[in-house]
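FAQ: What does the model actually see?

It sees only this:
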Amino acid sequence: MPASIGELNERSLHRALKRRYAARGGAAEVAVGSYVADVVLGDRIVEIQTGSFSALRHKLPRLLAEHPVTLVHPIARDRFIVRIEHAPEDGAEPVLLAPRRRSPKHGSPFDVFHALTGTPTLLDHPNLTLDIVMVIDEDLRVPYQGKRRRRRRDWISVDRRLLEVVETHTIGGMADLFAMVDPELPEAFTSRNLSEAMGSSRRLGQRAAFCFREAGVSEICGKQDRFVLYRRTGDPAAIPTPAGPGR
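And it is asked to produce this:
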């Protein structure tokens, strides 16, 4: 069967998740107004987004105005790297150029902040629910054929294939994400405190701090050394005595 308009550029992971949600009694690739919804389950629309949510900044508001929407975002808890000769044809097995290996990186639900940075207030729409789907997948990579770059990568990703769904975290708003780290935070906290609470990089901690502030879950309450201090919205103005760099 030829691919529909919505399927022309999607990867295997997207298609697999679409089939998984449609199997609950819905239909895939349904026209809704001027858009094509990934899945329709009764009155609910399911949109699967593997990258930044900014790509949906025009489509989602229009869908949310009329329908409840579940936004599905997969994150690889574990990943296998598969280096192949070229992108495989539909249904064909790829030609391996190196043994399949497990990536040393492991994702967490907090990686969703990478996708949320461009639309930090998105989660608080009353019609929106976010499903963070933790998966095990394969990343298919082919040799880079372009011109030499200053920071050249020898391999580029051409597809992601779903191997297993590990668990799903259903998020109703930014407050739900904050509740996952709140018990580990001091009264006034920095982006470094956030990264430590999430067990993540400093960069992700900064993105989480930005999203929480933009969504109104936290607010700036001062500075500590070179770090901006935040507090939960509505907390007293008192700021604890600094406990050393990065606190």
